[in-house]
Amino acid sequence: MILHIGKRGFRAQRTYDYLYDPVFTVSAETDHIQESYKARESVDYVIKVPEFNSMFSELPHYPHFTLRLNPVDPVPSFIDRRWRGHAEQRRETLSGALPGVQLHKPKSEDVTGEDRWKFFKRPLVRFAQQIPDDVIFALTKTDSHITQQDSSERMESLFQRTVGIQTDYRESEAQTDPFSPEYKLHPGADIPEILSLATFSWGHGLPAGLDEVEMIERARQKRVWEATLPPLSDPTQLDKRKRMINEMEAKEWAFREQEIEKLQQTRLALLVRFLQERESKQNKATVHRLDEHFSKLQREKEKRLQKIRNNYALSIRKLMAKRKMLEGKLTRQDVITEHLDYGSQMYAPLFPHGDVPDRHSQSDVIKSHLFDTYEELLELEAGLPPSVQEPQIKTQRPKKIKGFIRRSDRREFDLLKTYQALKDKKVQVVEKKPLRFLYRVEKPVHRPPTPEVDVPPEGHEEKELAVIFLQKLIRGTAIQNQMLEGVEKHLELILEMRTTHSLQREEQELQRADKQVTQALQRQHELTESRTAQIQSFVDGLSGEVIADMLDFLSKELVRLQEERRIHAYMLLAERDRRLREAEESGRRQVEERRRREEDEIFRQVMKVHQATVDLYLEDVILNSIDQTAEAQAREEIHQFAEELNNITYAMEEMRNNEQSEEIVAQLVYSFLIPEVQKVAVRERVKQSQRRHLHAAHALIHDTDSSSTSPRPLSPASRASTSLLSQIVEQVEEASHNSDPENEHTD
After folding, report:
1. Statement: residue 1 has pLDDT above 50
2. What is the DSSP letter of 67?
3. 325-342 core/surface letters (b: 16 or more CB in 10 A; e: else)
4. Cα dist. 212→176, 217, 255, 387 in Å?
């Protein structure tokens, strides 16, 4: 149970659950003592006591209440504060020593569970002071069962009493299970044999059967055997005791094996019975299913047969209709012929044409032997009452119209009503006011004159009688003609009635002779027809067998040819499918090979690019390193050469004079100007040679005379440059000539 404790959260259990809750269990007595200490230290012992002087104060140094310990112990004095494990251990020890014996049975009126604390009375005596936590009073050690029993008896004496009542029901009707009274065992008393049945209950061992009786007998034998066992105090009999115990265990194991085998046999018998029942149910279900299937097939068969019969009747009618119209001419319906023919559709309409005959017309026909002969008919007529022979015809009274009235009847009724009103108005006499003192004397009404009939002339009555006689004669003749026509129409029926109800023996004998002759002729005709039918059936059978064999052979040949063509078509389709698959496979193979070659080429190109990239990278690295090394080495050499040249130059500058300086300048000018002048002269000579070739080409093209061609004079710029070049060359040559002797002299 989870309890809510203000704003501080939730507590998993209550403070005194270790005392009141029978389900609360601790592992040892130490845990029980810890739970008691926790209960002592709980906040339930602290109460708030208000201060009267500062009850409404909110100041911290003037509190409106103080905390004090509650002097009242919340646990009553009769509650056992000891650990319940000792009593449980003692009970388990006793139950092990006395198997099957119930030592204590709690009463049904005892309150148990989580609400048990509500049924205890708190003491009225208040403690003067709170018991310290380190003080534990010694309690008297008594049996928990006896204490609980005494307390329950004391509670019963205070709050309960037994009252007898009387009911309208018998004990067998009101009681469901037999009553089991409580029992007590006095210390030192022998255990009665009846306690071996304490574990039995109604429906579980009770009422006792053969198995329970056998179990009781085995328990008796076991108790007798236990009495014959040697005591444990005699060490010389220990082997014998052990041997007897082993023999008893072997017997018990054999008995258990027999019980197990018996149980297995029972289960096997039940299994066989269940299997047989299941097989019988399956067989019944199968038979029922087969019957339903057979009835379904029978219904389908009847439907097919009915359909075949209907189709047969329809075909016969169609053939008869075609036979009537062999020439294909349409015949007009002859009403007179149909009326004269009593077998036509006028008297007996056909069902397929939409006319439904009375199917139950023969249900009211009376079949009796009294209708066979005339004497029997007379006998039947003599037995009938006179009311049947003399029918009474009664006129039908007009029906009273209720509810809906037709318009014509309503109009007629209105006209009659109007006519009656007009008639009453005409007949009505206006009454005058009676006189007050005089009374009118009414005169009797005059009698109307007697009507007179004119006397007919002479001969008129004879004529009227003659006309009446002629009318009777004509009517009689008409009735006679109708009777003759009826006789002609029903002549066959009259003849049939005469044949069946003939009164003369001679006619009957003649009819018998005619009948015999007719039967003889019929037999002869039937014999001839049967012979002809046999011959025809034999011929038809032979021809049918030949035709059937031939048709069978032809049908088989046709089937074989169709199968051969089908197989050939399947073979062609399979061959075409194989070729298509081979073509598709070759195409896929070529595509795969081409894709593989492309991938290989791509791989080679990629690897080549990678290799070239690596080579270029290495080459760049090597060239860069070589360039850097060469550049560094060249710089070092140039620096060295420049230092040496500077040293030589500085030394020469210190040693040279003006002439040497001019010589150096002349050499420099010669090394820079003379090559340029020579280059210009060479270019001019090349241009002149090219120009000469161009003039020759022009001459050849334009057919000009070679003698007329002359070199083109130089331009002024060319002449100036040539003269300047010649002057410079001369000066240089002079300077060189002048410098040669000096050099030789210096040398």
Report:
1. no
2. E
3. eeeeeeeeeeeeeeeeee
4. 22, 9, 15, 91
